[in-house]
Amino acid sequence: MKPQRKIKVTTRRADAVTQRTDMLVVGAFSHRKTIAPALRPLDQALAGALLQLYKIGDFTGDGDTQSTLYTNGAIPAKRILLCGLGDRSKVTLTTLRKCAAAAAGKAVSLGVSSISVALHMAMPKSLDRSEVGRVIAEGICHGAYRYEEYMTAEKKAESPFVATLVEADATVSRALAGGVRRGTTIGLAGNFARTIANRPGNVITPKELAKVARGVARSSPRLSCRVMDPKQLVTLGMGGILAVGTGSVHPPRLIVLRHTAKGKSAKSKPTIALVGKAVTFDAGGISIKPAEHMDQMKFDKSGGVAVIATLKAIAELGLDLNVVGIVPSAENLPSGSAYRPGDIVTTYSGKTVEIINTDAEGRMILADGIAYANTLKCDIIVDIATLTGACLVALGQHQAGLMSDDDDLLKALKHAADQSGEPVWHLPSGEEYARDMKSKVADLKNAGATRWGGASTAAAFLRQFADQTPWAHLDIAGMDVFNNGSETATPGSSGFGVRLLCAFLTHMSQR
């Protein structure tokens, strides 16, 4: 396979106007009759060219707008990329992240491999400069990413894509640098997740995903990995995972990736469980899916991949937390050995489940993963999964569904969503939905009697396996993939969940 292009984000104490670079990226606000003070030295060096763009209407400064200006030697930078930030009073960290992603994407499309970034120059002082550095780095990593492992066209070896945040003030530069280091770690972890999620089902099987997790564990002394094969799953009674995997020649696995807190006090610290669905390919089993768009079902491992990438990131960030990543992985295919509608499955918890639809497989493997987290005496359980088409119907491709029975956990995850720019919307999952999941021949059934409220009934089903542990569910169906790409991202996996979970764990480590 062709190696992925490396992306590097750094900082330099320098004046943006005198910076020698292929592209200088600056941000500008909308509705300007004059150039912002921070950009005036640049405008003066360009003989008023920036202001002229506003006057003739070639650039408005509205969000998601760009304009490229060639300097013709007036300054050392070969070209200026003006990025619209919208109304100055409404600018947020998410605005900056999107702008940085769009700028990096533009640079890559132009064949530019080295850029200087000064998006922060006109930012309100109310925005913490370390956080500004973080979101710009995250955005650059996201926008510069391309998935080209299987492109066979001959090309020269690509040099790394390098982005440098430039700032003349020493104090500001130091603050930006700390944020850039954190943002680059998180951004590259997100790209790692995108690469693994983008790999097809004939490359990433449950066994191969376990190898990926083991490789991540070897990267840090604070990580360890245990993989349970089918024989061990049988011994443990992991009936949910085993049932889903019976139709495939690629047997299921349960991946347990641990991150241990620092020092002798690690055992006394709470443990957070992240449980991620990793169906490496989902044909629906006997309840087979339509052929149209079935190729996208390689992305049904996105929740589990996000968990593995998050553990990678927090180890590199040095968070002082006990975290266990639990990734049940199976391939859901129809065959003579596949589980059937009408089957009754005994899960790891001992609860029995009547199978109504074999395409409701994610909740079956998560049921075992969540119950296993309870046996490890985890203090908080958060699961993440591309679980239901119903969530996509409800929220579209704009927000993930968030369900929980714990107000403090809800609040923490909503805060993390705001900080990470990966938005969530709280959906209900109370007893009225749980009643819809009761079976007449078993403890539960794996699908409701109607299609109404499918995201909420699925979450209510999962809640039965968390027992009394504070629990939350993230349904990322629709958020896991960019179908057509955009100005900020290339088509394929979005890596959704990595930034959100990193923000959540960072917040928990500071409490």
What do these coordinates show?
The protein is an alpha/beta fold. It has two domains: 7-170, Leucine Aminopeptidase, subunit E, domain 1 (3-Layer(aba) Sandwich), CATH 3.40.220.10; 195-510, Zn peptidases (Aminopeptidase, 3-Layer(aba) Sandwich). 36% of the residues lie in helices and 20% in strands. It is built from 15 helices and 20 strands. The strands form four sheets. Strands 7, 8, 9, 10, 11, 14, 15, 16 and 18 form a nine-stranded mixed sheet that branches. A hairpin with an 8-residue loop joins strand 3 and strand 4. Helix 3 runs parallel beside helix 4 and helix 10 (362-375) packs parallel to helix 14 (454-463). The longest helix has 29 residues, at 170-198. The chain is elongated and about 80 Å long.
Helix count, per DSSP? 15
Task: Report the helical percentage.
Answer: 25-40%
In quaternary terms, these chains amount to single chain
* Structural shape: elongated
Q: C-alpha Rg, in Å? A: 24 Å
Number of domains: 2
